[in-house]
Automatic annotation (TrEMBL):
Pathway: Glycolipid biosynthesis; lipid IV(A) biosynthesis; lipid IV(A) from (3R)-3-hydroxytetradecanoyl-[acyl-carrier-protein] and UDP-N-acetyl-alpha-D-glucosamine: step 6/6. It is an enzyme of class 2 (transferase). Its EC number is 2.7.1.130. GO terms for biological process: lipid A biosynthetic process. Coiled coil: none annotated. One of its GO terms (cellular component) is membrane. InterPro entries: LpxK. The lineage of its organism: Eukaryota, Viridiplantae, Streptophyta, Embryophyta, Tracheophyta. It comes from the Eukaryota. This is tetraacyldisaccharide 4'-kinase. Pfam families: LpxK.
């Protein structure tokens, strides 16, 4: 899906069971721009040259984002962002296989930023409770809130065809999902349907 939506852009999508190895192969193949090599100005200069039509750096990677990389302890990184699902923040507080946590909450000491996702799907009190739990582990962590905001539907088989959200007004909707947290998807669809019915 990402490859399809980002086609024609400089973004490169690596897919593989060993994500760190896939990223390393991309960096070896394309090279990378280091903002630290000659200070931030080198990074800015290269992007400026790209905008002016100089393609010598166009394939080099400036930023690498690794999904689910926190447990890869030996992996070098600039910043560690932890996403917390507001609808089921810590599950039953148990580690795999007894629960959903991959590490105890004390692992948040290694994080640089926490994002509480689906923050609009729970009460303000619940969001504050999650933030409080995070600050108990690391008080200095910046905490951001995020939410999914659907803009339109894409027609299956014809991704160039966009359907307005209003098109599902008074329509029976079948939700099919393969994501980890299906509840958030279903609740989001209910919210969209409710908003459309109020218009």
């Amino acid at each position: 899906m990402l490859q399809r939506h980002l086609a024609g852009t400089p973004v490169k999508i690596g897919i593989g069971a060993n994500r760190a190895n896939t990223a390393a192969c991309f960096l070896k193949r394309y090279g990378h721009i280091s903002p630290y090599k000659h200070g931030g100005s080198d990074f800015e200069k290269r992007f400026s040259e790209n905008k002016q039509g100089n393609c010598s750096y166009s394939d080099q990677i400036g930023v690498a984002i690794l999904d689910d990389g926190m447990q890869h302890i030996s992996l070098w990184r600039d910043i560690e962002i932890v996403m917390v699902n507001a609808m089921i923040p810590w599950g039953n507080h148990q580690l795999i296989p007894l629960g959903p946590l991959r590490e105890p909450l004390t692992a948040l000491t290694r994080a640089d930023i926490v994002v509480i996702h689906h923050a609009d799907m729970v009460s303000k009190k619940d969001v504050e409770a999650i933030a409080s739990e995070v600050r108990k582990v690391k008080n200095s962590l910046p905490i951001f809130l995020s939410r999914l905001t659907p803009l339109y539907f894409l027609k299956a088989g014809n991704m160039s065809c966009k359907l307005a959200l209003m098109d599902i007004h008074n329509t029976l909707v079948l939700c099919v999902s393969a994501i980890g947290s299906t509840d958030s998807f279903v609740e989001r669809m209910k919210k969209v349907q409710l908003l459309r019915s109020l218009v």
